[in-house]
């Protein structure tokens, strides 16, 4: 299925906190795209005063950098909520972290998957997943060579907050993306309208944010799928970046408040976190066969 001859503009949004992999990520994002001119990229760059991006990165076509003092940052989903403000009606959106590599013509790959799902009758496809790993110190030799699917991993105070992944069995035999139960916030590709339907809540701190976002997308009628082919790689080793909580001693309070919000949301109690009206929390728990709170 050709992706040419149609509006293939993609709004790319990247929250980046003191991450030395950001420049290489942006270079690869553009250099590997089939149509880099179709990318409109907003980076919410939370950094120290002596941390700067190279000129060849900031001059990439369509890249907008929102500079924020790292000490003023309120967390990853706060940064994501800022990035969403710059969506300008592009028909597609891509949510990434700041530590990725990409296959050649990755944009064609994800657009073809998305359009295949639409032609199969899926009204609101959402491609997501924990991408296979790469190692910045062993590039490109350290890249894993299989796509992954996601499953539950761990709880905190009874709340499901962490997910894991494992290789998709027999993935080379698949001809379409694999239905998914969970969402990864380091890779989401879907319709641009997602930025209106699922506005990131800055009060959700970090752990559990993927469960919150996946639930909210589900209730808005989005159906999640894992790519059945490799579209890129993610760096899971945090050596290249400084976590937000290392610079913010009050992160524990933010985390506890975030957990309280998640508990109410997952239990169906009154909350100011927005849900859609197409499906319910109970519908999602039935779908994933997992209770969000025990």
UniProtKB/TrEMBL annotation:
The keyword Transferase applies. One of its GO terms (molecular function) is transferase activity. Pfam families: GlcNAc (PF11397). The keyword Transferase applies. Keywords: Transferase. PANTHER family: GLCNAC TRANSFERASE, GLCNAC TRANSFERASE-RELATED. This is Glycosyltransferase (GlcNAc). It comes from Rhodococcus tukisamuensis.
